[in-house]
What does this fold into?
Amino acid sequence: MPFDILRLHFDSPFSSLLGDYSRTLSNWGAHFPGAQIFVEFMEEIEECPVEFLNRVSTFFGIDPGSALGWPHARTRVNAQSTVQMPAEVLRFLSRKYYFGLRDLEENPLLDNSEYVKAWRRGAERHLS
It folds into this structure.
């Protein structure tokens, strides 16, 4: 896809709102206490699916031990091959989201997430 079309998409108001995780968490936090908000990361599903299911189960009051018996907990679904993102797109997205990532690092709902720190470090690499 041509970069100009990607840029138009990511700069659209709709896409900008979807990518504004700080605002989303702030909106949810304005209506619910932090103890009622469950935030996890896609990377966790890939890296430690059973542990992820245990945390989800615990959050919803389900016996976390039941996740160990889920036969497909480690089965990849809709797995796709990875494609290298062009450097121009990485720089653009890094520039667009860098300050939002810094804000996310400060968000108490994310509990000082290593994933957010890694996203920010990645953005810094692409901007240097």
Q: What stands out?
A: Residues 24 and 30 are 10 Å apart (CA to CA). The chain has a mean pLDDT of 89. The radius of gyration is 17 Å.
